[in-house]
Amino acid sequence: MKGHFGDSGLMSAAQLTARRAAELIGTAEPGRPAYQFVADRLRLLIADGRIAVGTRLPSERDLVTALGLSRTTVSSAYAVLRDAGYVTSRRGSGSVATLPDGVVRRDTGLHLAANVPDGTIDLTCAALRAPAGMTEAAEAAIAASPGYLCGSGYVLHGIPELREVIASRYTERGLPTTADEVLVTTGAVVGTAIAARALLSPGDTVLLETPTYPNVLPTLEQLRARLAPVPVAPDGWDLPTTVSTVRASGARAAYLMPDFHNPTGSLMSDADRATLARALKRGRVTAIVDETVAEVRLDTDEPMPLPFGAYHADTISVGSASKSHWGGLRIGWVRASGPTLERLSAARVPFDIGAPVIDQLVLLELMRRSAGITQERRSDLVAARDALVTALRERLPQLRFVVPRGGLCLWIELPEPVAAEVTLAAEDEGLLIASGPRFAAAGGLDRWIRIPYVASPDELVEAVDRLARAMDQVRAGDAPETGSRRSAGRRTRRDGPLVA
Question: Where is the segment annotated Disordered (predicted)?
Fold first, then answer.
């Protein structure tokens, strides 16, 4: 479906306008052939996923006007891209973004990683292995399943026992909740989609943090939402700008991640939650709050803030077992007031008619033992985080980052805006990471990369060594080509890795 992002500046999945292409390409560098600069920028944009494969590029004539360059320059750039396999031109359909054989596809949507070469360290997904006791929990779930086997297996709102446990956890965290205010879903992505579909009409504006969780963008595109981006940094939210944007945007909803924000790791304070909640209430804005990482608290010396819903009654809280327990269960939930929950139930039916019963029973067993991450997993994550931090400070002291109190990743600032180049060079070193633009709600973030600390400490130290080699290549101008050398059989083409 063709997207419509209005004034947000995000491109359509079907057509890239000349104006937006010019913004993405930027200004040609002095002393460098203009056609080569344009070709290189478009190649990196396609390889990095900011221009999706299959997108129709602007005509040469339109791009000439937008860039202020000659027709010969733009024609030469497109010719370079066609020769390298990044553009296919067909009579009647114009020039379309493609990828040459052997290049890893990077879409901003949700795709499963497959065919990762042996020896490659894949850090594109911030998720953990299954916890200890999973087998026992699965056996207990099977033992408890006969009571559900006589029915159809479709439990629209979720099994009552799991809803009770989820509601109790919200109450413990400071937001009184009953089971009737909980809807179990097949993951947080689906929960967010349900909330967005229940709230939004085409053309409605959504307040959205940037960077943001990239897998929410396809849903907003399909709903033809307009985006009002607000900045989030590793040291927190720009509250004056955010409050001002709430007031000026006329947003219908806001998608927020106040708890160990993905990817920055920021944790919104109680005072900031109260301030933002007042602004949302004045603007009659419903908050869709992603709490997927809320239970992944690593430094326990200070209490957690209250859930955002404790400050803003018009909040739809979205949670998931994917970070706190295991992504393989594919169980999430939505917490909302009674009347809102009825709207959510109606909105889910066209594409989700209930989460798997056995998986719900497994999660029930796990949550009865530990509502969030266990102390053992917390200790493992702290060790991994500290090993990554130490390796980066020793090997790459020029990188800047804030060590988060929780969550699963570091948001790292590079000295120069070369995130796409670094991620491509890192891939050639056998390291898969996500570049900042993958998380951008309105372009930019070319100085940032995300590295999750979800591998072993030794593997993370090795990952830093590979990253250092990749950065050396980029700095020396020796970054690997993304065309012919990669298509020589060293890699198999696959869908883009999961960015979660």
Answer: 474-500
CATH topology of domain 121-130+374-488: Aspartate Aminotransferase, domain 1 (3.90.1150)
Which two three-digit tokens encode residue 413?
A: 């600032």
Q: Is 491 helix (H, G, I), strand (E, B) or coil?
A: coil
When pLDDT is cut at 50, 70 and 90, the band that residue 487 belongs to is very low
DSSP class per residue in 192-229 = HHHHHHHH--TT-EEEEEES--GGGHHHHHHTT-EEEE
Amino acid present at 468: A
Supply the pTM of this predicted model.
0.76
Fold match flag (6-97 vs 134-369): no
Name the residue among 12, 318, 363, 14 with its Cα closest to residue 193.
Answer: 318
- Distance set, CA 196 to CA 147, 225, 280, 441 (Å): 34, 10, 16, 16
Q: Give the residue from 364, 320, 365, 360 showing the smallest Cα distance to 155.
A: 360
Do the Cβ atoms of 313 and 172 come closer than 8 Å?
Answer: no
Buried b (16+ CB within 10 A) or exposed e, 362-384: bbbbbbeebbbbbeebbebbeeb
Please determine, looking at this structure, whether the domain spanning 134-369 carries the CATH number 3.40.640.10: yes
Boundaries of every domain in the chain:
6-97, 121-130+374-488, 134-369
CATH number for the domain running over 6-97 = 1.10.10.10
Query: Band of the pLDDT at 31, cuts 50, 70, 90?
Result: confident
> What is the C-alpha separation between 370 and 478, in angstroms, rounded?
49
Closest of 217, 499, 177 to residue 334, by C-alpha:
177
